[in-house]
Amino acid sequence: MPIKPVEKQNLAMQICKNLQEYILESNLKPGDKFPSEKELEIGFGVSRGTVRESVKALEILGLVERKAGGGTYIKQFSNQSLLMQILFSISVKDIKIKDLADVRFILEKRVVELAIERASERDIQTLEELISQIEDKLKQEPSADISALGSEFHRKLIEVARNPVLSQLTYLWLTFFNKINLVKDKVPSSFYIYDHRPLLEAIKGRDREKAVDWLNKHLRGWLENESEAGADVKSSVLIEK
């Protein structure tokens, strides 16, 4: 994609958008050298200051990184950078909880379906061990913090699907859910994890219908709790420290 001059209106934003397209269409990979400020200045026909502002925007998006004395390079993809963009986008819009739940269901449904198809006996054993640890911990202390074990269970389930693209999307989305301050802190932790035993049994039995039915009920219960609490996404988006 050739770098062409742009109309002098919102220049920095236009150039930033054009450069994103340039990265994609030029098939640039992490570590590849990015055009110099001088090349961009000449190519776009704008001032050096405008070019720097545009490149800075790309840095904020996590697409490029400057190396002292060595120019600018395409940066390794980071889930965290993409997550920050999602959080910011949602924080400035009125998004309904149901909209988020729809996306979550679509992603998790496919993960579960693939897990049923592809889970090995060793995978199932690992999931069984995680669920048992969660159950044992909650029996000892009903209000125990099981978030780490819960996250590990979901991470393993996503891994079992053995689809790297779907895994990236699903893990990113679940990470997003863990970073928004909804009513999950106001209900027993068992609501979110303790009842995952039926899901595991469905995976062990290779029962797709049973697994999808569980997922429907689970997310419906989650959605009802959010709605009853009047959860507001826009006002509850928080970045974990």
Task: Report on this structure.
The protein is mainly alpha-helical. The protein folds into 2 domains: 11-77, Orthogonal Bundle (Arc Repressor Mutant, subunit A); 93-236, Four Helix Bundle (Hemerythrin (Met), subunit A) (Up-down Bundle), CATH 1.20.120. The protein is 64% helix and 3% strand. The chain has helices spanning 11-25, 37-44, 48-60, 79-91, 97-118, 121-140, 147-160, 164-179, 197-204, 208-228, 233-236, and strands spanning 64-67, 71-74. Strands 1-2 form a two-stranded antiparallel ribbon. A hairpin with a 3-residue loop joins strand 1 and strand 2 (71-74). Helix 4 crosses helix 8. The chain is elongated, with a radius of gyration of 22 Å.
Summary keywords:
single chain, about 240 residues, mainly alpha, Arc Repressor Mutant, subunit A, Four Helix Bundle (Hemerythrin (Met), subunit A), 2 domains, two-stranded antiparallel ribbon, 2 strands, about 65% helix, about 5% strand
